[in-house]
Design goal:
The protein has 444 residues and is α/β, with parallel strands linked by helices. 31% of the residues lie in helices and 21% in strands.
Length: 444
């Protein structure tokens, strides 16, 4: 078996690992690297035509965003995905295309996007299937709905690609599977691969969120929570609902605005991919967490009907305030110190969210029409980080809980973190471990 790391090597973004065995070429993930300068995996037309199939771990664009480009480059095979991944790809790829076009970037055609979605083959968890003689199995990776770890077995050698991992139970999902067949080689994500990367318990994080919302309501202020559409939006909504139902939070007027609502619909339609407790709540229709009594979708495009409530809670995309309705709400709320913005996800450098986090008080916002406006930030800004990735301790635990393996590669992390995690696990598990460089080959 040969492996080439075409992306996510000593970096986060453009995940793409090429596996060659038995004369077949399999690509694990086909992502893009977003940010100020976009970067793609190094796959030319010649290679794209030779790839037999692509298995995609989950819908986030750093894992799926290159799929339509692959089709344009002449890839003719299938994309293996779970159903939630396919549904979310439809949403995220269309949005990626729309924003790319608006910014005048190089982007794939609509027909390439449709072809990619049409050529998906739906895979269930824990259901081994043979493609070109290679057994391919998807397992739950706990990160977002439908997210997978992918195992390949050619009969002689086997490989597990973790995908993005969460190894603790969240509001929506069970932790990643580790009860999988013994595997020779593991390729593991390392987003939080450094010893300093320790997260507080989810309970504590949820409680801090509820306390801050309560405090803001008490002083008659509005709370804006910019959220990522997929996963985080739903998790925050359900968390706040639970606190309202338990009586900790007063019954509030809540709103969800932007792409988060489409993503919530996809969660509802694919609810059997969520954890048992959520499925049961949906089945007993009176307690469906996605049919909220407390959160509603604004009925008009202008924000007046949302803003007329003095102590409302607003969940809006995008999560880093880089576009979408969250920016418009910030414009309305920033000037009053009674209000509060709570950032719940990672804020990339160069985004408005990051500026707020860094305490910048004079910012420039760009509205949906592209007009720029100066803004004085007088409201409170809070950072309460909900993570969809395993932290350092959970990554260690995950590697220990997998059946024994001999060789490890760490990907999907800043260079220093992939190196540190490889070194720590090599010592701890007495295995060979490496953080590969971009385009590096390995024979396993
Ligand atoms: Zn992800
Ligand atoms: Zn990722």
């Amino acid at each position: 078996m040969e492996i080439q790391f075409l992306g996510s090597a000593k970096e986060v973004g453009r995940s793409a690992v090429l596996v060659e065995t038995k004369g077949k070429k399999i690509l694990l993930d086909s992502g893009v690297k977003l940010g100020s300068g976009e970067e793609f995996p190094d796959i030319n037309k010649k290679l794209a035509k030779k790839i037999d199939y692509v298995a995609i771990s989950h819908a986030h664009l750093d894992h799926s965003g290159f799929a339509p480009f692959l089709v344009e480059k002449g890839f003719k095979g299938k994309f293996l995905v779970t159903k939630p991944t396919r549904d979310l790809m439809q949403l995220l790829l269309a949005d990626y295309r729309k924003i790319g076009k608006m910014k005048g970037k190089q982007i794939f055609s609509e027909s390439a996007m449709k072809k990619a979605l049409k050529r998906t083959e739906l895979i269930k968890f824990r259901d081994p299937q043979k493609f070109g003689g290679i057994e391919t199995t998807f397992f739950n990776s706990g990160h977002i709905i439908g997210s997978s770890s992918i195992r390949l077995d050619d009969g002689r050698r086997s490989l597990l690609y973790s995908g993005d991992l969460n190894y603790r139970e969240t509001t929506l999902l069970p932790p990643a599977d580790t009860d999988i067949p013994e595997t020779d080689v593991v390729i593991m994500e390392s987003t939080y691969g450094s010893k300093e990367d320790r997260l507080e318990s989810l309970k504590k994080t949820q409680r801090r969120l509820a306390e801050k919302v309560k405090e803001t309501m008490k002083r008659n202020g509005k709370t804006l929570i910019p959220v990522f559409a997929v996963g985080r939006g739903q998790e925050i909504m359900i968390t706040l609902q639970n606190y309202i139902e338990s009586g900790f939070l007063p019954k509030t007027k809540g709103f969800t605005d932007g792409m988060v609502n489409k993503a919530t619909r996809i969660h509802r339609q694919n609810s059997k991919w969520l954890k048992e407790e959520i499925i049961n709540r949906i089945l007993s229709a009176a307690d469906d967490p996605f049919e909220s009594d407390y959160f509603e979708i604004p009925s008009t495009r202008n924000k007046r009907n949302v803003l007329k409530y003095p102590d409302s809670v607003i969940l809006a995309t995008s999560g880093m305030l880089t576009g979408g309705p969250s920016v418009g709400y910030l414009e309305e709320l920033a000037g009053d110190k009674k209000n509060r913005v709570i950032l719940v996800g990672y804020q990339v450098e160069g985004t408005l969210g990051r500026e707020l986090l860094d305490g910048v008080q004079k910012v420039v916002v760009t509205d949906e029409k592209g007009n720029q406006k100066k803004l004085d930030v007088k409201c409170d800004v809070e950072n309460i980080h909900f993570s969809a990735h395993a932290d350092y301790q959970q990554l260690m635990q995950y590697a220990q809980d997998l059946p024994d393996f001999k060789q490890l590669f760490t990907v999907h992390g800043e260079a220093s973190k992939t190196v540190e995690l490889a070194e720590t696990l090599a010592d701890k598990l007495d295995i060979s471990a490496k953080s590969p460089s971009l385009d590096e080959w390995a024979v396993v």
